[in-house]
Amino acid sequence: MRASRAGGTGNAGRTGRANWADSPRASRRTSQADRTNSASGTSRTNRASSTRGTRRACRARRPRLPDGAPDLPLFHAPTNFLVRVIRTDYSFQNNLEKSATQNVQYLDQYIDYAFNQRFMLSLFGNYTWLNQKVSPDEDGAGGGMMGRFQLVDTPASSESLNLRVDLPDKGIGVHTTKLSAAIAGWQDLSPLGAGRLGLYYDLQEESYAGLSAPGAAKDDLAYDLAIAKTWTRPSASVADLTTFVEFSGVTNLDGNEPSLTGLTATPALQFILGGRNLFMLGVDFPLTHPSVEREVYRITYIYCF
User: Could you give all domains of the chain from N- to C-terminal order, each with its CATH number?
Assistant: First the structure.
C-alpha cells in the first residue's frame, strides 16, 4: 500500500509541501509496510515571487492588488512562486494503538535560491525518528533537490512547475527514489468581493524507483486544495496573520490497492515577525480510514535572505 500523507517530507511524505520554502509536498508518503506508512507524508513546502533583488522576494507575501490577498507558503501544497529562503520543518506524528510505531518525528531543512524571475533551485536534507512499541527504534537521513519554473505571474494569480527528486532513507527501510512533477497555483479572490482571501491548488504525479515491498504502488497522484484568509497588514507588528485550511490527498495508481486514497485536513495559521521571519503552526487530521495516525503536529520557520 502507499496512499497516505502524514509526518515528513522526502520519501516519507510530500514536502511539501511547505512554501516560503519547500518542505513538504513537502515530502509525501513512505510506504513499506506499517513503519513506512507511519513515517509517511509531510509536507512539501515552497517560496516567494520574482527576484528583482532579494528584497522583492522577501516581500512576496504582500498583496499584489489593493486590499488583495497575499500569496503565501503552506504546509502541503508546493509553493507557486520563487524565493530565496532557508526553511525548517518539524512534525510529530501520533499513531493509533494498532500501529507498531508509537510515533514519528520528522525534521527537514531547505535552502531555496531563485536565480531570476523564472527559475529556482532547492536543496534539502531530512531526518526521521521512528519510536517503535516493541521492536528497536529506527532513524535515518534522506535528502534531495528540486527545481521550480515560474509559468504564470500576474497581480491576481501565480502558477509554477515543480520537478523534484527524493533520495532513499535506508535507515528507516525506505529504499526507493521518488521522482515527482507538480503544477502549483494561487488565485487572489479579492476581485470577487471575498476580502483578503486566497485559493491554492496543486496536482502532483509521483513515481517510485528501486526496491519496494511486494505489491506496493509504484505511481500515485497527490493533490491539494487550500483556502487562506489574511487578517493583518504587512505593516502590522504581527504581519500578514493568516488562518488557512488545507485538504490533501494521495491516490494509488497501481500496486495491490489501485485507487486507494488517503485524505487529510490541516487547519493552521501563520504570521511574520521582523519582516523576514515567518512562522507556521498546524495539525493534520486523517479524513479516511484505515489510517495509522491520530494526528500530525507541525511547526515551520522560514527566514528570507
Answer: 10-304 (2.40.160.40)
